[in-house]
Amino acid sequence: MDGTSTLELYAPPAQEGPPMSDEPDNPDNPFKGTPFEAMFQQFSGAAGAGGTPDLNAIFAQVQQLLSGSTDGKPVNWDLAKDIARKTVATAGDRSMTSADGDRVADAVRLAEHWLDEATTLPEVSATSAAWSRAEWVENTLPVWQTVVDPVAEHVAGAMGNALPAEAQQFAGPMAGMLRQLGGSVFGAQVGQGLGELASEVVSSSDIGLPLGPTGQAILLPDNVAKFAEGLGLTDEDVRLYLALREVAHQRLYAGVPWLRQHLLAAVADYAAGIEVDTGKIERAMADIDPQNPEAMQEALAGGLFEPEDSEQQKAALVRLETTLALVEGWVDDVVREATRDRMPSAIQLSETVRRRRAAGGPAEQTFATLVGLQLRPRRLRDAANLWAAVRDARGVDGRDNLWSHPDLMPSTADLDDPIGFAQHAGELSNIDISDFLTDEDKPTDSTSDDDGDNPTK
């Protein structure tokens, strides 16, 4: 953003004050031995002549670092949206035209027609849209809140738990301010990450998560053009291929009701395993100048709130990455079948997408650093091979029927033996899925009043 800190844009100007104390140890510091000890010593530079901390001055200086209300939430999402939109505007964005929308609509209609032969999951894209980068930020923010809030909540809780019992008498107002500060800093950093992601994603499902509205296929024309640079292919081929992937994602998430919540639950499991390195926070706090709002942002960029990898967290990440790989691998196989005899350039485009998704773009890596989540399918190629093996052995129906219930899904170990799983999938495809469902999960037939309330039918 032209070298200007995001926090600098939103924080009030620093006020001059007395020099900070160089005293290495303050016996009146209630936060002694905690990650906040160094921060308190920095703030206690505003103390009176006797060296007694002036809490009013301390709270006033902390307030300078606050960038707005979080309304009790772990992330200041108003700030995140503002910064994301400013980041997009700085990088360059434009309003979509009717011609952009028409080209996307044509590509989506043809993609739906091609996919009818490649999957049993029905068409769901009743509408399509061409989004600008700013529209992507605005329209995907609700899902990002669901993804990021559990992570931020656990980080905030871990920081609060670092306060010792003897500091509780001082912690009331300070803890509230620190939570607000953390929400604002998280908001600033998430906003920066989303703004950068908005310049890379080509569709609403580009990173695997269902970020857009159900039943609407979305492409970002300017990012599609950026994706096509250097490939030596026609704009029509690239647009159609990316539309095929978007429509396939739409069919999968609409046709597999449990999948969306399954992914979000994996994120929540990851958040529950967060263990914050309080020592890292303490070392970072020692370098923060309370009169310099940029210092907190720099500390965060250096990993101030970056969680440690606990065993629970690693296990949750494996489950999340496996599910993302299965989603992307299925889409890869479906699109490959749909384009097999129609689009020679699909092979090149498929490989480009695979490399891009497996490695993650610069903005995706930045976002992963901020919230600790690696939202990319590390084993996409293995998953695509597994779905292809199942299709070869059991047909399109056998492949798609495995999405009927999460208990039928391939495991991480199955990705190591796709042929073995494909043989086993024949047994799975003959299972009566109703045996797995609770009464609430079982679909009801709105045209049959006699049987709709009978859980045995």
Give keywords.
disordered N terminus, two-stranded parallel ribbon, mainly alpha, 457 residues
What does this structure look like?
With 457 residues, the chain is mainly α. It has a domain at 77-277 and 302-320. The chain contains 17 helices and 4 strands. It has a two-stranded parallel sheet with strand order 1-2. Helix 7 (168-197) runs antiparallel to helix 15. The longest helix has 30 residues, at 168-197.
Tell me the layout of helices and strands.
Blueprint: H1 6-10, H2 37-43, H3 55-64, H4 77-91, H5 98-115, E1 127-130, H6 133-160, H7 168-197, E2 216-219, H8 221-228, H9 235-255, H10 257-272, E3 275-276, H11 278-286, H12 293-301, E4 307-308, H13 311-339, H14 346-359, H15 362-371, H16 380-401, H17 418-429
Parallel strand pairs: 1-2
Antiparallel strand pairs: 3-4
Biased composition (Acidic residues): 447-457
Protein name: Hydrolase
Region (Disordered): 1-35, 433-457
Biggest sheet: strand arrangement: 1-2
Q: What portion of the residues fall into strands of 2 or more residues?
A: under 5%
Query: How would you classify the helix and strand content by structural class?
Result: mainly alpha
Low-confidence stretches: 1-27, 42-49, 64-70, 431-457
Can you count the helices? 17
InterPro entries: Zinicin_2, Zinicin_2_N
Region (Disordered): 1-35, 433-457
Biased composition (Acidic residues): 447-457
Organism: Kribbella rubisoli
Outline of this structure?
With 457 residues, the chain is mostly helical. It is built from 17 helices and 4 strands.
